[in-house]
Amino acid sequence: MYKHLKFALTFLFIHGFVSFGFAQGVSMSPTRLFFTGKPGEVVTQTVTLHNGSENDYIFNINLKDWNREEDGTKVYFDAGVLKQSNSAWVTTLETNINLLAKATQEVLVTMKIPANASAVELTNSMLFFTQIGKQKDELKLDKGIGIIALFEFGLHIYNTPPANKTISLDLMNIESVANLADNSKIVQVRLFNDGNVVNDATVELELTNTDSGEETKLNPINISMMPSTYQTVKHQVPDNLKGKYSGVVIVKMAGSNDMRIGEKSFEF
């Protein structure tokens, strides 16, 4: 009689706008590389991995395409599938790296832009550093079940044509909708990136009770949008807000003093 050992394989994917670390003590900086190469050029940048833990880690380096759905969720695809992909242009010297305990390692990322590439379209991909499990990573539990907890870092890679300088968002719509899960209220703001660069922005919502004058500022929501894409930002309205309110949406764009401001009346 054979005993079959079952494993739960867990990937913890981490991404962000600045350097970040994980509980295991591994960090990466930066988390986004912005190339500005012209067609026919070869450009390079470095990313730094630091292992502050007592353990050695092995990472596989691989590429994927990705885009963002309107609700902000990232969706991943095989490399080279999407129209705006630059994954075929990106290489590293290594396919696997051994990050020793208490060590720091730089990885050179090279982008070779084809001579026939568009001189106006922004392209992107994601470079993954995926931990390769070792036998000692296995945690054996009762009843023959084991868990291998692995993690990976995602490095956003963009190439923005040098002539692309327009930072702009169009505030398309503001409306109050019911959250179908619990019937709470949500104010959602629909935006369109009508510029030609990646747009990092903060969406703020201020609500003023038209009877009492009491003001409520909701937590700002950070977004990042590719050109020619839509994104709907959802602000959860506190349950204690009842009555008629005047709402002001303020969209602040990084790298620009320009703002988008919209107003809307609500009744909660």
Strand content: over 45%
Rg calculated over all Cα atoms? 23 Å
CATH superfamily of the largest domain: Immunoglobulins
The CATH class assignment of the largest domain is Mainly Beta
Specify the overall morphology.
Answer: globular
The SS-based structural class is mainly beta
Secondary-structure element series: EEEEEEEEEEEEEEEEEEEEE
CATH-defined architecture of the largest domain: Sandwich
Q: Low-confidence runs (pLDDT<50, min 5 residues)?
A: 1-20
Largest sheet: 8 strands, mixed
Tell me the quaternary state.
single chain
Give the overall average pLDDT.
89
CATH topology of the largest domain: Immunoglobulin-like
* Overall strand count: 21
> What's the tally of helices?
0
Query: What is the CA-CA span between the terminal residues?
Result: 64 Å
Helix content class: under 10%
What's the domain count? 2
